[in-house]
């Protein structure tokens, strides 16, 4: 009887270990597939300034 209980406990332990490992692998895979943010360099072009005198004329 003790052998049966010990074997069932062993199977439960092995099964639980695989479930936990599978969950950890899925969680890691989701984190790896998340969108990675890459730095974006924005280039600003200066506006051509009109001279103050030309707008008054």
Task: Give a structural overview.
This protein has 57 residues and is an all-alpha fold. The protein has one domain (2-56). It contains 2 helices and no strands. The N and C termini lie far apart (107 Å).
Shape: rod-shaped
- Helix proportion: 55-70%
- The helix-strand sequence is HH
Average pLDDT metric? 83
Which radius of gyration do the C-alpha atoms yield? 33 Å
Strand content: under 5%
Number of strands: 0
* Contiguous uncertain segments of 5+ residues: none
End-to-end C-alpha gap:
107 Å
Look at the helices and sheets and give the structural class: mainly alpha
Keywords: Membrane, Transmembrane, Transmembrane helix
Transmembrane segments: 6-25
Tell me the layout of helices and strands.
Blueprint: H1 2-33, H2 52-56
Main features:
single chain, 57 residues, mainly alpha, rod-shaped, transmembrane helix
Brief overview:
Helix content is 65%, strand content 0%. It has 57 residues and is mostly helical. Keywords: Membrane, Transmembrane, Transmembrane helix.
């Amino acid at each position: 009887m003790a052998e049966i209980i010990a074997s069932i406990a062993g199977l439960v332990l092995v099964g639980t270990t695989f479930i936990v490992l599978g969950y950890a692998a899925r969680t890691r895979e989701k984190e790896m597939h998340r969108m990675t943010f890459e730095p974006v360099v924005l280039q600003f072009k200066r506006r051509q300034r009109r001279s103050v005198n030309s707008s008054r004329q």
